[in-house]
């Protein structure tokens, strides 16, 4: 325990002097000792202080631009690395400790005006600007809501104006559609067979496949039987090539193919039957190989069916039949074209599309336009929010940069204070006069009182002296910054208030509901006698009477705007501006003196005493030299005056001696 006490509270080379001067242990540790005395104890005391200051600086500055906030773990890791590193450095390094304290006090002076301006503009964004954006979003919602109400009201008015027609259509459309549907079915029953014959069908494709199979059998018969002298009619042009109409060609070709199909099916059936009989014969006489060749060979389909001859006969017969048919009907081209045109016209008239164009499409278009307006407003508002969020992040980065410049200037001032003993060494403190009193008590040359010339020549001042001309001139720039910041803040707060007041008045005088009423009457009576009159009367007669009272509430559009938060504006905007005016504009010079004289001088006490002794010696040397120079000047003037008197007396005696000789 004794060794721990000595390690913390005992400094060997100071104990003798402390006891001789009668100082207490606490006074020697906290007031008289230097920054490198009682080192372990200073580490233990300064670390919690540095931890609190570092946490405060992180919450004020680094928290704005935490580069690791994309992950909670990395965010906490970055946070505590910054805080612990700064705390340990604060406890170990006296220069860093002094710089941090200078930053804290310097932020209150004109060097910290940028920091306070960034803080004010950040709070301006979080307060009035954010409230303006909220009310703007609310007003855009109110506008789009009233647009929807007007659209709904216009739609209802259209419905009211077209009510009798809609009722008439609703009452009579069923009857007319029932009768029309029967007529349509009847027309379709008449037209469909003709339309079927006018187009290429699946039946035509099946006939073509059958004819292709017959062509294959015919080709096989020709190749196996080597019927070179068999001449086919393949070189004969088809009959339908003489026709011009596509429909006539299709009909002629279909008749020709159907004619060929009759023969081709017979050929195919002949092949199938005799092929089966031949295979069954071989299966029954399998044990008589020589006999089965003689007997079963008689069932050869090539000799029995004669596919090539039958195909030629079919071609010849069908060509003759088609030639005769074409000779009998000379106008088959025009007849088929007219039939096709009539069929297509009837089919076109049977296609009905009425409801979508009349009702559905305009409603979809109107709804799309209202939604488009709302989405565009939301998109522009989102862009504005992104811009302000980016500006807020940039202000956070600017705050870090200004804090760095303040820290850099504090380090430079501390270095000048420690390395240049004449750096702003013009302040007279109590230790200065204590030295002077000590010399006066010892009968030595002392300075009290200082003359006005000495004050002016050395620019001496006290810590609480009025500002100098240079300090007054340097305060104009902070004053201009304060005026600009104040004007901007006041304008934004005024816009916030007036925008809220206008929106509130508009909402207060907005109707809570829209009411519309009307009476609809429609009477249609058909008079006449007979079957046609009865049919038309049954379909058209209509009586319609209706009273309509339409009320559309607008409560969903009456939203209260957000009022300005005057307490937030007073605490976070107006009060910092007042502090800026008082501390950074009016008393900015005093904050700088306070940092230089009390903060840096209080931390580096030995250097402060050395600077005071240097200032005292400088003034004492100037006074002693001044007195010596004054005495030398007096002696010089006395000797000069005596020499002048001697010269005058010598000249007078010479004049008296020379006067008789001249006579």
UniProtKB/TrEMBL annotation:
Q: Where in the cell is it found?
A: Membrane
Kindly state which keywords UniProt assigns to this record, in alphabetical order. Answer: Membrane, Transmembrane, Transmembrane helix
State whether keyword Membrane applies: yes
Q: Where are the transmembrane segments?
A: 40-65, 77-96, 386-407, 479-500, 570-591
Query: Has keyword Membrane?
Result: yes
Q: How does it sit in the membrane?
A: Multi-pass membrane protein
Dendritic cell-specific transmembrane protein-like domain mapped to chain residues: 423-616
Where does it mainly reside?
membrane
- Quote a single Gene Ontology cellular component term: membrane
Protein's recorded name: DC_STAMP domain-containing protein
At the highest ranks, the source species' classification is: Eukaryota, Metazoa, Ecdysozoa, Nematoda, Chromadorea
């Amino acid at each position: 325990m004794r060794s721990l006490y000595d390690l913390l509270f005992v400094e060997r080379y100071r104990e003798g002097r402390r006891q001789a001067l009668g100082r207490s242990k606490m006074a020697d540790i906290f007031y008289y000792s230097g920054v490198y005395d009682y080192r372990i104890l200073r580490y233990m005391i300064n670390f919690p202080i540095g931890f609190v200051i570092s946490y405060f600086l992180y919450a004020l500055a680094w928290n704005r631009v935490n580069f690791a906030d994309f992950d909670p773990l990395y965010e906490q890791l970055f946070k505590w690395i910054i805080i612990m590193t700064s705390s340990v450095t604060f406890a170990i390094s006296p220069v860093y400790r002094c710089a941090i304290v200078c930053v804290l006090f310097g932020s209150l002076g004109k060097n910290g005006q940028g920091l306070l301006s960034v803080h004010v503009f950040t709070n301006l964004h979080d307060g009035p600007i954010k409230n303006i954006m909220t009310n703007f979003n609310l007003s855009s919602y109110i506008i789009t809501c009233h647009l929807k109400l007007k659209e709904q009201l216009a739609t209802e008015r259209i419905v009211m104006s077209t009510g009798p027609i809609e009722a008439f259509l609703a009452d009579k459309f069923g009857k007319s559609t029932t009768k029309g549907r029967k007529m349509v079915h009847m027309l379709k029953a008449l037209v469909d067979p003709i339309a079927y014959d006018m187009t290429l069908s699946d039946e035509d494709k099946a006939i073509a496949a059958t004819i292709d199979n017959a062509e294959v059998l015919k080709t096989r018969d020709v190749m196996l039987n080597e019927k070179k002298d068999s001449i086919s009619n393949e070189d004969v042009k088809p009959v339908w090539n003489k026709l011009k109409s596509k429909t006539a060609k299709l009909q002629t070709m279909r008749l020709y193919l159907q004619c060929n199909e009759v023969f081709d099916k017979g050929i195919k059936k002949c092949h199938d039957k005799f092929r089966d009989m031949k295979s069954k014969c071989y299966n029954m006489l399998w044990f008589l190989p020589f006999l089965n060749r003689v007997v079963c060979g008689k069932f050869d389909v090539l000799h029995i069916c004669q596919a090539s001859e039958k195909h030629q006969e079919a071609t010849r017969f069908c060509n003759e039949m088609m030639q005769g048919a074409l000779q009998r009907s000379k106008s088959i081209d025009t007849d088929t074209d007219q039939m096709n045109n009539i069929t297509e016209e009837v089919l076109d008239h049977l296609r009905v599309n009425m409801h979508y164009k009349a009702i559905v499409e305009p409603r979809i278009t109107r709804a799309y336009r209202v939604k488009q307006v709302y989405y565009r407003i939301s998109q522009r508002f989102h862009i504005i929010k992104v811009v302000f969020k980016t500006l807020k992040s940039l202000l956070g980065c600017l705050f870090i940069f200004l804090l760095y410049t303040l820290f850099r200037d504090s380090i430079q001032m501390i270095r000048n204070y420690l390395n240049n003993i004449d750096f702003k060494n013009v302040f007279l403190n109590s230790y200065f006069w204590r030295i002077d009193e000590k010399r006066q008590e010892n009968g030595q040359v002392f300075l009290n009182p200082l003359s006005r010339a000495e004050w002016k020549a050395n620019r001496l001042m006290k810590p609480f002296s009025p500002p100098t001309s240079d300090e007054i001139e340097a305060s104009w720039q902070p004053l201009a910054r304060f005026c600009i910041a104040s004007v901007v803040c006041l304008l934004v707060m005024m816009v916030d208030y007036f925008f809220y007041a206008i929106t509130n008045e508009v909402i207060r005088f907005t109707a809570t509901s829209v009411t519309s009423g009307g009476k609809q009457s429609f009477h249609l009576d058909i008079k006449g006698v007979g079957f046609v009159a009865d049919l038309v009367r049954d379909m058209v007669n209509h009586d319609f009477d209706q009273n309509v009272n339409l009320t559309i509430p607008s409560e969903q559009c009456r939203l209260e705007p957000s009022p300005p938060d005057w307490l937030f504006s007073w605490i976070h905007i107006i009060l910092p501006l007042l502090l800026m005016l008082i501390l950074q504009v009016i008393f900015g010079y005093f904050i700088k003196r306070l940092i230089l004289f009390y903060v840096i001088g209080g931390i580096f006490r030995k250097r402060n005493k050395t600077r005071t002794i240097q200032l005292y010696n400088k003034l004492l040397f100037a006074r002693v030299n001044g007195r010596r120079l004054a005495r030398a000047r007096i002696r010089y003037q006395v000797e000069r005056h005596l020499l002048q008197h001697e010269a005058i007396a010598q000249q007078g005696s010479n004049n008296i001696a020379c006067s008789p000789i001249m006579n």
